[in-house]
Amino acid sequence: MKLLVLGATGQTGQFLVRQALQQSHVVTAVVRTPSKLTIHHDNLKVVEANIFSADSLMEHFNEQDVVMSCLGFPISILSRITGYTESMKAIVASMRLAKVNRIIAMTSWYTQTESAQKASWMVRWLLIPMIRSILNNMYEMENYLNEECEDLDWTTVRPPELKTAPETDKEILTYDGYFVPDQDGIPITNSVTRGDVARFMLSQLNVDLWVKKSVAMVTK
Ligand SMILES: NC(=O)c1ccc[n+]([C@@H]2O[C@H](COP(=O)([O-])OP(=O)(O)OC[C@H]3O[C@@H](n4cnc5c(N)ncnc54)[C@H](OP(=O)(O)O)[C@@H]3O)[C@@H](O)[C@H]2O)c1
Q1: What was the pLDDT predicted at 77?
Q2: Would you call 80 exposed, middle or buried from its count of C-beta atoms within 10 A (0-12, 13-18, 19+)?
Q3: How far apart are CA 210 and CA 176, in angstroms?
Q4: Which terminus of the chain has a smaller tally of CB atoms within 10 A, N or C?
Q5: pLDDT tens figures, 27-40
Q6: Are the CB atoms for 5 and 28 separated by under 8 Å?
Q7: Is 32 near ligand 1, meaning CB less than 6 Å away?
Q8: Helix or strand or coil: residue 170?
Q9: Is any ligand 1 atom within 6 A of the Cβ of residue 106?
Q10: Which segments of 23-127 does DSSP mark as H helices, in order?
Q11: Is 33 exposed, middle or buried (0-12, 13-18, 19+ CB in 10 A)?
């Protein structure tokens, strides 16, 4: 397939690009600093564009089969995070113009505020308050896709805490919710490797199960 990857220079994005190339996909990595992507491959094209501008993105979307996003934006104490929604609006406009129908994008567990009530004390009262502004904008992006992008086959993939390590052969557990619960409804406390998030995202290329849905995932 022809995949357009956003956030390809990031920690998860690089695992995704490598695995996509290993699976013989043809990858266009849309980045802001091409020199940051150190992967070289005949099936990899690296282009520079502004993720917040459909005018800038548009030309790279022609003839792509699927858009995959591992974009992430840093915590800001002084201002609201808007990167997820602002970039997604430009991405969606470009998809519509280029008639690309499928997008798989990363968000996180606990994007909805109330969903963390059963999380551990540490997660609920220390971690989440630190990243709440990021989670809020991810939640807005998920709602934008759900409410305003019925014409597109979107999936948002919600992982828990990420570790920088390659893919494993562990079983991937999924759940239609804001986290993956155990049999008592308590969030499973495992983290997941960035390689396994990339593995799961790529596994969705030929699967309709999570189309027009957000899916929480973790490894067993
Ligand atoms: N950390 C966790 O435990 C955790 C858990 C669940 C979900 N997540 C989410 O998972 C996603 C991926 O995480 P990650 O750690 O792999 O991300 P990351 O390493 O921080 O990579 C972020 C990517 O977004 C790109 N980006 C950021 N701002 C940009 C801009 N203005 N223009 C163009 N590109 C821009 C970066 O490009 P540059 O390389 O040019 O900066 C980079 O490629 C993020 O949304 C993160 O919040 C994280």
Answers
A1: 76
A2: exposed
A3: 9
A4: C
A5: 999 999 999 999 99
A6: yes
A7: yes
A8: coil
A9: yes
A10: 54-57, 83-98, 121-122
A11: exposed
pLDDT at 190: 87
For the chain, residues with pLDDT lower than 50 are: none
- pTM for this predicted structure: 0.98
Comparing CA positions, the residue from 71, 70, 89 lying closest to residue 202 is 70
**Considering only CA atoms, which residue is closest to atom 5 of ligand 1?**
161
Distance, first Cα to last Cα, the chain: 29
pLDDT digits (tens, 9 = 90+) for 42-90: 999 999 999 999 999 999 999 999 999 999 999 987 889 999 999 999 9
187: phi then psi, degrees, rounded to nearest 5: -55, 130
Q: How far is the CA of 151 from the centre of ligand 1 (A)?
A: 26
**Cα-flanking dihedrals φ and ψ of residue 154, to 5°?**
-105, 155
Q: What CA–CA distance (Å, rounded) separates 106 from 7?
A: 10
The confidence score (pLDDT) of residue 214 equals: 98
Q: Is 10 in the pocket of ligand 1 (CB under 6 A)?
A: yes
- Long-range pairs for 73-78 at CB < 8 Å and ≥24 separation? 73/134, 73/137, 75/130, 75/131, 75/133, 75/134, 76/133
Which 8-state DSSP code applies to residue 176? S
Ligand 1 atom with minimal separation from the 33 CA? 40
Supply the pLDDT for residue 53: 98
Distance (Å, whole) CA 213 – CA 220: 22
13 close to ligand 1 (CB < 6 Angstrom): yes
CATH dotted code for 2-219? 3.40.50.720
